[in-house]
Write a structure and sequence with these properties.
This protein is of the alpha/beta class. The protein has 5 helices and 6 strands. It has a 6-stranded mixed sheet with strand order 2-1-3-4-5-6, sandwiched between helices.
Length: about 140
Amino acid sequence: MKFFFDNNLSLHLAHAIRELCQVEEHVREVIHLRDKFAPNAKDHDWISALAVEGEWVVISQDGLRKNDLEREALRKSGLIVFVLQRQWSEHRHWDKAHNLVRWWPSVMEQSRKIKGGAAFRIPWRHAGGGRFEQVRL
């Protein structure tokens, strides 16, 4: 599995998760958008590039509030997408880091179960054993 953090999340957070995943044999790569693309890369461009490569799981905070072109690119991409619930944006860096580390085993497990594209929302609260809400693209 390969995980890709969108530009609306911290580069440092992505790299911290990458380091923590060194012990996960099924995680091949964890990168931030700026590790692979220009910081101003258009969403539909990186979505298309990741779709061609395959096996990417996208982590984003923008709530999938994208224009029609970007939503269509996501629908056709076959990518697995996890979107942080809006409440995440109300919290400080360290609180986000703490909570994402708590959620990360569930994100990895859900990603392993999915074949083909799907989108899920990650709630702020880690109640009920880490359950996601499926999101329609």
